[in-house]
Amino acid sequence: MLAGAGMLLLGGPFAGSAQAAALCPGHQVRSLSFSTGKTVVYRNRDYVCAVTLAKSAGPRRSMSVGVQARGSRAVVDRGDFTHHAGPVTVHAGHRCVRVTGHVGGKSTRTGWILC
What predicted TM-score, i.e. pTM, was given to this entire model? Predict the structure, then answer.
């Protein structure tokens, strides 16, 4: 049964979207797709959380996710991962945030959002 559950997590593009929800509390406010993955952004009261998901699980490759509240330093998780980078969470309060994500050389970046 565990093998079957593992296959469900690995199947299809962005099969990890449910996993992103489990990694970040709150409600999804943005999904930033790019050719090799997507970065999903959640808000929970005064906190913003993000996770970058590879389009497909596979060998370890360079991935990152970052969130920066205006006036603060960015919080970043980067490394070589098989499926996702993050989650990272910042206290944003009522401040705008910037979000970045990359998987294997392709990336996404927002301007100031959630203002």
Answer: 0.82
